[in-house]
Design brief:
This is Cyclase associated actin cytoskeleton regulatory protein 2. The chain is α/β, with parallel strands linked by helices. It is built from seven helices and 16 strands. α1 (2-22) packs antiparallel against α6. The termini are far apart.
């Protein structure tokens, strides 16, 4: 088991070294402060349930709290979803204190991270592939840790039955000199990491500030500002020299007279994809496909439908949530959702509920028709920046009654607060 853990540590260390390039603050803090490599000594010692156990695990606990505090201090960061994914899943390192079946505990932490990494994918999927690679690499750390625990510590961390009791100083030894990072696992990380600061904007800001300073310096000259103007004689004035009116305006120096067409590059068409990645079903880039089906679903799984046009998807069973992003003329039929169905940046969407769903969210969408079942008529429908939304309420066995969602509102002051209500305009 010791040698197996050493192999696992080398594998995880390789992934962490690559993660440093993408998550500089969090993973570097984790690697430098949490002496995770000392865990390989655990099954050489015996364990005694006493306050000593708290001393052994306190360094890990302290640094987990430090990472979570860092996230709270940076709520305004553009990478807050990245920070949240790490903060919500980092307690998985406490699996050493779980006496029975620590593997499912790590899996729960991985699922908690997936909630935020889905948001990262939604925000950066088409703009910066580095964030997509970061998500895959980070979640793989916990997946590999689950596999190691399942193989060697299924019922909890294995301690020696005859060795000496593990001392609290086990974590106090100075860290060994760090060896060079092993090569990163595939796929290789493309490009430099995203950073937390806005240093790239400083040169532009400095240039703008210099222009402003020069402008104010000229304004401060007062009446002397006209001394730098050149006198224009009558023969140079158009209204006093008729010959100037028949001349064509001079072409600007250094520029071509002809129109310059901006180069356009055709959008790269990505291959269609329907696969289960961890706990997430990915349905992407389908065109004219009306037989898409997700057969086997679990309660903790989510479905992310991206850039599918003129297609139909059926989701069977019970699933955690569904996200429909950047789709056109898409129909989705599902049975049961325990979380939320979210439609964003889409056009002409048809949604049919066969079972139950607590919440449907419609954002930045033009044209959305929702068919509710008798069991889902009490669901919450939240909309923002959307138009042409209609809710179909069942009547009888096979009939529906259509109700439009208000798009125009009236807001009045009632003396103590603003009151907003939908308006009805007679045609």
């Amino acid at each position: 088991s010791v040698w197996a853990y050493e192999d696992h540590v080398r594998l995880i260390r390789g992934r962490i070294c690559w993660e440093i390039k993408f998550s500089a603050v969090f993973i570097a803090l984790l690697l430098s402060n949490i002496k995770l490599l000392n865990l390989m000594h655990m099954n050489r010692f015996s364990f005694q349930a006493s306050p000593l156990a708290f001393d052994l695990l306190k360094p890990i606990s302290d640094h987990i709290q430090e990472i979570q505090s860092f996230r709270e201090r940076n709520r305004g960061s553009s990478l807050f979803n990245h920070l949240s994914a790490v903060s919500e899943s980092i307690p998985a390192l406490g699996w050493v204190a779980v006496s029975q079946k620590p593997g499912p505990y790590v899996k729960e932490m991985n699922d908690a991270a997936t909630f935020y990494t889905n948001r990262v994918l939604k925000d950066y999927k088409e703009t910066d592939r580095r964030h997509v690679d970061w998500v895959r690499s980070y979640l793989l750390i916990w997946t590999e840790m689950q596999a190691f625990i399942k193989q060697h510590h299924t019922t909890g961390l294995v301690w020696s039955k005859s060795g000496p009791i593990a001392p609290a100083s086990l974590f106090d030894s100075p860290p060994a000199p760090s060896a060079p990072c092993p090569p990163p696992p595939p796929p290789p990380p493309p490009g430099p990491p995203p950073v937390f600061t806005d240093d790239e904007a400083k040169p532009q800001a400095d240039a703008t500030a210099a222009q402003h300073s020069a402008l104010f310096a000229q304004l401060n000259q007062g009446m002397d500002i006209t001394k730098g103007l050149k006198h224009v004689s009558d023969d140079q004035k158009t209204h006093k020299n008729p010959n100037l009116r028949s001349q064509q305006p001079a072409a600007a120096k250094g520029k071509n007279a002809g129109p310059v067409a901006s180069p356009t590059t055709p959008a790269q068409k990505r291959p269609p994809l329907l696969e289960l990645e961890g706990k997430k079903w990915r349905v992407e880039n389908f065109e004219q496909k009306h037989d898409l089906v997700i057969e086997e679903t679990e309660l903790k799984q989510v479905a992310y439908v991206f850039s599918c046009n003129n297609s139909t998807l059926q989701i069977k069973g019970k699933i955690n949530s569904i996200i429909i992003d950047n789709c056109k003329k898409l129909g989705v039929v599902f049975e049961n959702v325990v979380g939320i169905v979210e439609i964003i940046n889409s056009k002409s969407i048809q949604l049919q509920v066969l079972g139950t769903v607590p919440t449907i969210s419609i954002n930045k969408t033009e044209g959305c028709q929702v068919y509710l079942s008798k069991d889902s008529v009490s669901c919450d429908i939240v909309s923002a920046k959307s138009s042409e939304m209609n809710i179909m309420i069942p009547e009888g066995e096979d009939d529906y009654r259509e109700f439009p969602v208000p798009e125009q509102f009236k807001t009045v002051w009632d003396g103590s607060k603003l009151v907003t209500e939908p308006t009805e305009i007679a045609g």
